[in-house]
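DUF2231 domain-containing protein
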Amino acid sequence: MPLHPLVVHFPIALLFVAAIIEVVNVFVKKETLNKFGTLLMIIGIVTGVGSYLSGENAEHFAKNAWGKSVHETIELHEFYAGLSLLVFFILLLLKLIFKHSILKEIKWSKGAIIKGVSSILIVLLCIFGITALIITGHLGGKVVYNQPSQSIEVNFQNE
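Structure:
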């Protein structure tokens, strides 16, 4: 049994909750939420990279268990997983630059227009990131549950 299905749910949950916190915090503007959202995002990205890497072993397992019929779905799943990580990494960089005062010495970073644009960009990236996560999860579910054997356990019992 591959490690991937066991660890993949942690980054999904962490990144999903982090994105919700970010969207809420655009309106309530609490520093505690800002820091907590950033922490969840960092942990989610780190565990997401681990999950992404563990997917390679799961890919070989799935192809051996179900044949080449899953190849296209796995490739799409892998693409959206990478896209999800990229979106959340860009989001984290934007947060660190504009919401954690890394550029506090630069005058232009304090302007209302910059803060407004960064908030809008953060919300849009959160929505895009959540969408990519949902698509990734859906495709992962298709790989596991839309096979002739219907599940990994049934496939093992048939052998």
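The two ends are 15 Å apart (CA to CA).
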